[in-house]
Amino acid sequence: MILRRLCLMLLGALFLSPVLSAAEKPNIIVIMADDMGYGDLSCYGATRVKTPNIDRLAAEGQRFTSGYCSASTCTPTRYSLLTGTYAFRRKGTGIAPPNSPAIIQPGTETIASLLQSVGYRTAVIGKWHLGLGGPNGPDWNGELKPGPREIGFGFNFLLPTTNDRVPQVYVQNHRVLNLDPKDPLWVGDRKPSDDHPTGITHRDTLKMDWSHGHNSTIHNGISRIGFYTGGHAARFRDEDLADEWVNQSNKWIESNKDNPFFLFFSSHDLHVPRIPHERFQGKSLLGFRGDSIVQLDWCVGELMKTLDRLGIAENTLVVFCSDNGPVMDDGYKDGALENNGDHKAAGPFSGGKYSVLEGGTRTPFITRWKGRVPAGQSDELVCTIDMAASFAAMTGAKLKDDACVDSFNVLGAMLGEKGAAGRDHLVQQDNGKGGNYGLRVGHWKLQRHDSKQARNVKVNTPLANASVARYRLFDLSNDPGEKKNVLDEHPEVAKRLTALLDKVISDGRSRP
Ligand code: NG6
Ligand code: CA
User: How far from each other are the two terminal CA atoms of the chain, in whole angstroms?
Assistant: First the structure.
């Protein structure tokens, strides 16, 4: 009798032991939208665009009201998502130019290498914008490495930068897809010949006119940032990008369905140039900006159909997020402003892309894992930078002390577990190293302006051109729009937050 009891106790202890509690290895799909603001989805209050598929994700999972990306531009957010490290800690993490070398060095621990280490198949499909190649930049006609495959992704199918930057080609693993060696691809930042047509010399031939920048080489009737020649057989049509991401993803998921897999589905919607497929044009009341949201919503629906068809929806954690807040005119005259009506792309928040106001980084954030994540709304503070540590914790991947130094394990909050807390603070930044900062702690928000100018003067932020005190404090509980600086009323809070921000920056890490 006693022996039996002892055995049972032992068995119980084994079951409860954290070492033996089985790591969960669901498939993981991270869907990142480009330039999508807090208010751009119908499940976050939009009415001039309908997003039934993403709304369904939200209805079946957790919809976060304090979900963030780490920066208000693309490259630093993506850098932080993959490395779990604030981009302001590293030089060269600002918006990457067309010929940028690889920004994340091989050997850096990433969300992909962590998951690979515990047996996941890993892929990135869609926009990259984190540079390719060694210190001299991409060898467009040769091997494009290092790139995603050198930092943990087993497969990549990429748009190398953003689609308003040259070139318009796909990169599959280490090569430009369909490149004819007889028509080599050249990419540069100087006009290659006097008669090279550009958005300035051939402006009247464009199918979408530019408003600022974006007036160099023309492809598909749209002039871009930067110049290129050759590679004609490899070039894609902007209208077909979303279909291609979905086709490639479906194929890849299907052939990896018998393993745990991690797919980073990196959409280009709704970044400029906003050229959704013809079948989505006119499908929102917001012009091409909203039509691109409809297109992304379709992509999400297709991916979810694939999970259902393969019977793996209940074994797949899906995270939907964005890389920075919204922008209206980002360089092309695509009608975004004219069609905006009463749409609030940043929801109740101020600022947007390029800004450290909440609108720059507080973005849609949804987690769904059918049968595992309860349905509901979460007000916990979570950020894209936390996925590395959270997924490591979930899957049993070993996170070394010096890796992913700003990524917090907020798995419980991401999975909607009762009482599970998110972060206690988050640093927000605009672009690269040496810009402006935000710090969110509870209902307080500290802004620190090291640069008096927002990056892009076209952006509607009170900071553009204004001379602003270096530190400002806001109470988000009654002022989500960050309109009333209360620093003088709350000197103690300001002192505490200023010290915390200084500490996070100077410590070189923030993960406990
Ligand atoms: C800016 C571009 C903008 C966009 C942005 C990057 C100009 C005038 N503006 O420099 O159009 O491409 O970079 O966007 O060229 S992001 O979402 O990839 O960060
Ligand atoms: Ca972006």
Answer: 46
